[in-house]
Specification:
It is built from six helices and eight strands. By secondary structure, the protein is an alpha/beta fold. It has a six-stranded mixed sheet with strand order 1-2-8-7-3-6, with helices on both faces.
């Protein structure tokens, strides 16, 4: 696992770190040594997470990327949506969401997407597994993104390549987030698979 060296920081990374320091936050940058990976964003319990994520992405050197339905990318604003980092997904297509994003990764030389497996700020009884199957299908690492309010630390605290044994890999993920606390810990979703559906791609 590699950490970003200060002497190699871009102006954007310095700006992001400076903004976080103004509010007493520290960025952690244990990033995969590859230009393509998917980042778990957890725990997502408040709109403040997004406010903190913006300078954190700058600090980590991310180009903000997001996923939207294909209708948003039609003229006259389609070009602007792509310029802003949008990635279109065809709803109802024969290839599902996971396969479409995995294909985007395979065709890209450099790509980082942050996905919140909880899918909502409210507490749920399991995580969605789309991020896992995207990484597995594209052959890319999963980076462990986090925001820990008690310690005021945000960033990426490590990474691993999915083995294909989702239950074992979810245990690894659960161990990492065991001591991470979002702004509202009572809203933490459980890091577990949907009952009797460990192989379902959500």
């Amino acid at each position: 696992m590699g950490k970003t060296e200060h002497k190699h920081l871009t102006w954007g990374q310095r700006l992001g770190r400076g903004l976080l320091r103004l509010f007493g936050w520290q960025v952690v940058a244990e990033l995969p040594p590859t230009p393509k990976y998917i980042v778990i964003g957890a725990f997502h319990t408040s709109n403040w997470d997004f406010v903190l994520a913006l300078p954190a992405m700058l600090a980590l050197g991310f180009r903000p990327r997001w996923i939207g339905k294909d209708s948003l990318f039609k003229p006259p604003f389609g070009g602007l949506m792509r310029l802003l980092g949008g990635i279109p997904v065809v709803r109802g297509a024969r290839r599902n969401f996971v396969e479409q994003i995995a294909e985007v990764y395979r065709k890209s030389e450099e790509l980082v997407i942050v996905i919140a497996p909880e899918g909502t700020r409210k507490k749920t009884d399991h995580w969605k597994t789309g991020f896992y199957y995207i990484a597995l299908g594209a052959g890319i690492p999963i980076a462990l993104g986090f925001v820990d309010y008690p310690s005021k630390r945000i960033g990426v605290g490590g990474y691993f390549t999915p083995s294909g044994d989702i239950r074992a890999d979810m245990e690894r993920i659960r161990a990492f987030y065991e001591n991470v606390r979002g702004k509202f810990p009572h809203e933490h979703s459980q890091i577990r698979l949907l009952d009797k559906m460990g192989d379902k791609k959500e």
